[in-house]
Amino acid sequence: MMYVKNVVVGCGLSGAVIAERIASQLNESVLIIDRRSHIGGNVYDYEDQSSGVMVHKYGPHVFHTNNKLVWDYLSQFTEWHYFMYRVKAIIDGNEVNIPFNLDSLYKVFPKSIAEKLEFKLIDEFGFNKKVPILDLNKSNDDDLKFLANFIYEKVFLGYTVKQWGVKPEDLDKSVSSRVPIYISKDNRYFQDKYQAIPLHGYTKMVEKAIEHPLISVKLNTDFLNIKKSIQYDRLFFTGPIDEFFDYEFGKLPYRSLDIKFVNYDKEYFQSCPQLNYPENYDFTRSVEYKYYLDQYTERTIVSFEYPRPFEIGINERYYPIPNDINQQLYRKYYDKATNLKNTYFLGRLADYKYYNMDQVVERALILFNTIEGENKCPD
Ligand SMILES: Cc1cc2nc3c(=O)[nH]c(=O)nc-3n(C[C@H](O)[C@H](O)[C@H](O)COP(=O)(O)OP(=O)(O)OC[C@H]3O[C@@H](n4cnc5c(N)ncnc54)[C@H](O)[C@@H]3O)c2cc1C
Q1: Is the Cβ atom of 40 under 6 angstroms away from ligand 1?
Q2: How far is the CA of 211 from the centre of ligand 1 (A)?
Q3: CATH 3.40.50.720 fits 2-83+195-249+320-376, yes or no
């Protein structure tokens, strides 16, 4: 039987941050176990051999946050390439800024109609406001209702049906409201204070974070297969919570993606880092990674995302499906998890929650503070 003071299951951002804190602040040994062949979890990136471009294996990742603590924390492990994300959608053959904003109006409507709508939007909701499509649709003004329906049909509906494989009205409002109209001329996809890509990639950033003599990493190993052979004082589990409990209450559903990478023998494929396709094709978006780090290469590589239902053993868990039934199911696992001593669940799979990267880092830092506090005042 092997003994380690702390076992961390999963070497994604959640696992890396908690491991780093425990080793560097508590001076305790940590073993990180991951069943994948690489570190980084879903933020894993690598250089594509054919083009020389840094690509993100599990889908495009742009770091953005308003949380200075998280930004400062990660900045210990990486320099940054400052990068404000631009996304466009192809609507009626035109490339239109996403979130749909005041500039987008002029791309899809004649000038006179766009001007009228711009005036009415600012008048009813104010400038620099993000208004969810569902709220815009509640307006009493017929022109704004028309606009709401236009955006709903052209930007939201097709994309959402493709992405989730369901009707939009069956979705949790927190998901629908992620597609707002932005009453602004701000063409950035995110408005956060800090927006960047790690200069040498996410994998390097994670590698640097866990580069500590008290941290060891075991890859290609499923913790659930070896758990009987390890003893520990604390366990941090960042894998799927339902799997941890052997699906006792049932499987937590996810949406998955089939991400196809295509190399092109030309300098650029598209006009911006991300193009969305709400109306046409089976894929939802194409992403050209060379924009991310401003790489100048002769060839390029683009990923196309085909949403799929998640199937165990076939594809990856990408997006938890937020609805009441799934939350109730998650709650059963959560209640069971809180009864376990010295076992902590964190991260997107253990919390069954869509987290941005800054949120998982914050979550891990807060959990560490609690543990550090318990360490200082034992009961
Ligand atoms: C397509 C997509 C795009 C995204 N883009 C962005 C973005 O642009 N900006 C942003 O801020 N966030 C983005 N995110 C969110 C971001 O990916 C997550 O917040 C973050 O990667 C979660 O980290 P984690 O450590 O919690 O989970 P993960 O990265 O999934 O790490 C969990 C690890 O645990 C391992 N594991 C699980 N079970 C076991 C087991 N039994 N034994 C051993 N190992 C196990 C897994 O192999 C995995 O490596 C995106 C998410 C998706 C799906």
Answers
A1: no
A2: 20
A3: yes
